[in-house]
Amino acid sequence: MIATITVNPSVDRLYKINILQPNKLNRVKILKHMVGGKGFNAARVASLLGKDTYAFGFVGGNNGDFIRNEAKQDTYKTCFIDTGIETRNCIQIIDKNENKTEINEEGLPIPYIFYEQLEENVKHILEKENINSISLNGSLPQGINYEFYLKLMKIIKKENPNCKIILDTAGSIIKEILDSDIMPDIIKPNEHEIADYLNISVTTDPQKLMEEIRINKNLSRIPIIFVSLGAKGCLVKAHENYYYALHKPVKAINTEGSGDAMVGGILASFDENSNNIEKVIRYGCAAGTANAMNLKTGYLDPQIFNKVKQNIQIKQIN
């Protein structure tokens, strides 16, 4: 059984415009109005792959009502906490040249009593169910810092030392956590996030990234690292070994949420008690690719997933 935790979800709106003009009235066409939240996307993908999945998260206000109603169409079990605080909005604007502008609200402060309630809910599910893996997903609202994720990791490991923890976040949060004494089992940065962490230029060269990760004292402590490289594949550190995975080019329809789908695929592989790293890589990469081949965000067709999974080429590079 799987769980995902998303404390700063959003309602996402995708707008299309001819030319974005600052300081002027811009009339846009709305293309999508959808649930945002990395953990919700990962939970949806894992459940589509047939895994019993719990999705924990905060919701509130009209946007929270929208998320709850949309979740009724999904197959994961919802463990939402209604904070009464309006869930944030995230807006993407795409012009005729496919240039994308993003406007993401930070997320309003949430009283700490709700964080404590979430901690108790996580403890309860770990006592009640055999949870093989949990992902901690995305950014945090205003008024809370990385220490909340550290606290959750302590709770998870105390209740179930064998439960795998995937941390899928970026920026200052990941930097602070990796400077601490508590390490997740898996992280999943993309090429931009890993470059930011390593303070290097963005690259999709797996050999260069492998060398940079090897000499970084914090990254070398993490058992498994998936670096998603978009159409260029994925670099995976698995303990002392490094792998490069690639799928032949596919017709991408919507790449949004592919990283979240990768997390869902990784969670699904661990739910099968897989200690075969190549299977874990196949599940993660196939889920990310299958998402890109679907119009919906954080979604896949299981039949396409199974076809893609067979065509993932994996080679050890160290």
UniProtKB/TrEMBL annotation:
Belongs to the carbohydrate kinase pfkB family. The keyword rRNA processing does not apply. Residues 10-292 form the Carbohydrate kinase PfkB domain. PANTHER family: 1-PHOSPHOFRUCTOKINASE, 1-PHOSPHOFRUCTOKINASE-RELATED. Pathway: Carbohydrate metabolism; D-tagatose 6-phosphate degradation; D-glyceraldehyde 3-phosphate and glycerone phosphate from D-tagatose 6-phosphate: step 1/2. One of its GO terms (molecular function) is tagatose-6-phosphate kinase activity. Pfam families: PfkB (PF00294). It catalyses: D-tagatofuranose 6-phosphate + ATP = D-tagatofuranose 1,6-bisphosphate + ADP + H(+). Its EC number is 2.7.1.144. Keywords: ATP-binding, Kinase, Lactose metabolism, Nucleotide-binding, Transferase. It comes from the Bacteria. PROSITE patterns: PFKB_KINASES_2 (PS00584). This is Tagatose-6-phosphate kinase. Signal peptide: none annotated. InterPro entries: Carboh/pur_kinase_PfkB_CS (IPR002173), PfkB_dom (IPR011611), Ribo/fructo_kinase (IPR002139), Ribokinase-like (IPR029056), Tagatose/fructose_Pkinase (IPR017583). GO terms for cellular component: cytosol. One of its GO terms (biological process) is lactose metabolic process.
